[in-house]
Amino acid sequence: MKYISRRSFLKGLAALSLLGLSGCASTYALEEDKMPGQEKFQPPVLEVKPVDYDYLLTGGTIVDGTGSEPYQGNIAIKENKIVGIGHFVPGQGGEIIDIEGLTVAPGFIDLHTHTERYLAQNGRAEMMLLQGVTTHIGGNCGTSEDSIGKYFDGLGAIGINIGLLAGLKTIRMNVAGTKDILTKKELEAMKELVAEAMEEGAFGLSVGLQYWPQIYTTTEEVIELCKVVADYGGFYSTHIRNEEDYVIPSVEEAIKIGFEAGVPVEYSHIKTAQRRNWGKMSRVLELVEEAYVKGLDITADVYGYEFSSLDVGQGRSSISEDDMITALKHPLVMVGSDSGLKTNGSASHPRAYGNHPRILGRYVREKEVISLAECIKKMTSQPARRLGLHDRGLLQEGNIADIAVFDFEQIIDKAERYSPNHYSEGIKHVFVNGKQAVKDGQVTGVLAGQVLKHRKG
Ligand SMILES: [Zn+2]
């Protein structure tokens, strides 16, 4: 058979479809290959419907977010949806983008961030888009907006999608200031505020039990608040009570809260902080796994740095790289950046500009600690499942077209510990709700992000 390249084959198919000839299927049989007595096989005539598109991404390596093996294929985008994937006959179209040699994945969903104030001031979100990130969930570690509804109402155009959690600190301070012991009435008032936030679209309740005044909140109080979250089908996002010497009992507390409130648990920025606790990660993960096997919907998230925001200026590490890698490899652990940004867009920790490309470049490509398909799953379908986003996080027909195209050979973070405000490299194209937000490595200025609200069910 005469060799034809994938691209000329596709062009041929596109031309055929323009002529209305694409519905034909050829029949053939080689006489000399027939077995004695074999009937001549007639392939059925297939109806091939050409797929019209706004954008056709051709020849990319598709990593679809499920964790299954990458494969070559095309992707068609029409309006805000993925309308074709893999092998299909392109129909009438807008723009064809050749992505041969590049990897195409669902846009990354970062479920652990502190960027909602920044996004309210400056919606361009270049540092996120240039990491391939298309969704941020803010309001973590207990600090959130006073009113989630008002925040969403006041939000201008933004470059990425945003969803929020309700924060324990915010709710507690609104009801009881910095008091240590709550009255029953105050706890009831807090439950009301949790319910209100859930009604307004919060994905769940976040806590930072290590921080004042959240440290005063008892396990029983958190259980009471989480029962409200569970009624709405939300989840409990926990910065646990102690990430250092008492990491084990703190994980046990998070698990107890999950079981007793009947609420799914997201264990935030999993770590075993301070040198004397290095090596405890395997035990921490055993606890998480035991709880999961017993029926608790528990997952964790990790960022790709050995130092936290508290360590960044101190020149020290909080977690060992070995423990961080052990966490990253675990199937119940996904990727979350813990990004924070000032309203002018500057960050004190490099993760806000570099987390996802850093993990892909350093830990997948260079150190090969997990496969590319596994890593993409941790950045896409795993957080989507946690958030209950049924139409994002996977490249499949009918899903919303949040898409990241990158050069896996080049992708890398440029933000550094003492110079954290540098864009990452290697992201080539990004689509947010079907609109092109990054083109040939440059932010287009198109602000196509949407507010994502949790809906029960
Ligand atoms: Zn935290």
Structure characterization notes:
- It contains 13 helices and 20 strands.
- The chain has 457 residues and is α/β, with parallel strands linked by helices.
- The chain has a domain of 287 residues: Alpha-Beta Barrel (TIM Barrel), CATH 3.20.20.140.
- Strands 1, 2, 3, 4, 5, 17, 18, 19 and 20 form a 9-stranded mixed sheet that branches.
- The protein is globular and about 85 Å long.
- The protein starts with 5 loop residues before the first helix and ends in a 14-residue tail after the last strand.
- Bound molecules: zinc ion (ZN).
- The site of zinc ion has 5 residues, from loops.
Short description:
The chain has 457 residues and is an alpha/beta fold. Helix content is 30%, strand content 21%. It has a domain at 107-393: TIM Barrel.
List its salient traits.
TIM Barrel; 13 helices; 20 strands; 30% helix; disordered N terminus; binds zinc ion
Low-pLDDT ranges = 1-27
> Can you summarize the main beta sheet?
9 strands, mixed
Question: Could you give the distance between the termini?
Answer: 53 Å
What would the principal axes of the Cα set say about the shape? globular
What is this structure's SSE topology?
Blueprint: H1 6-18, E1 51-62, E2 71-78, E3 81-86, E4 90-98, E5 103-106, E6 108-110, E7 113-114, H2 116-121, H3 126-129, E8 133-138, H4 148-154, E9 161-164, E10 166-167, H5 168-176, H6 184-199, E11 204-208, H7 219-231, E12 235-239, H8 247-261, E13 265-267, H9 281-293, E14 298-302, H10 321-329, E15 333-335, E16 339-340, H11 351-366, H12 372-379, H13 381-387, E17 403-406, E18 427-432, E19 435-439, E20 442-443
Parallel strand pairs: 1-4, 1-5, 6-8, 7-16, 8-9, 10-11, 11-12, 12-13, 13-14, 14-15
Antiparallel strand pairs: 1-2, 2-3, 5-17, 17-18, 18-19, 19-20
Helix pairs in contact: 5-6, 6-7, 7-8, 8-9
